[in-house]
Amino acid sequence: MIQEEINLNGVTISSAVPACSQLTLLDVGKQIHCYVLKNGDLIGNSFVDSSLVDMYCNCQQVESGHRVFYNALKRSIGIWNAMLAGYTQNGFFTKALMLFIEMMEFSGLSPNPTTVASIFLVWVHCEAFTLKEVIHGYVLNWDFQMKNTLKMH
Known about the structure:
Layout: H1 10-22, H2 26-38, H3 46-58, H4 62-71, H5 77-89, H6 93-107, H7 113-125, H8 132-152
């Protein structure tokens, strides 16, 4: 598409970056990231940002994922989840815990099932995590609310 001079959009980028991630083609992923930075229309796209965080973390470049996360213009639940998963997958459980606390206190977002799945690993590996009962209660309440919502429809 680039050779044909077709402008790539957020859907194209956020579809191509996971392929780099799965195949651990970090150099190609970095080239795509450069393309994003050169195209102002793509900067701030939450799907693109989330896929870049995921790609860097899957390629064990957590610091690069961290930079994308903190430079994101808008932090959707997807980018929070990508960074949380990146930290836990790479064994940075304390950083994941701190990020989760930051998300809960400052983002105005509520955890979703993906968030909770990442935090479960923190439960197992981080003795300092004293919010286990709080998260467990949240999961039970969320599950109860979802079941009631599904029954109404």
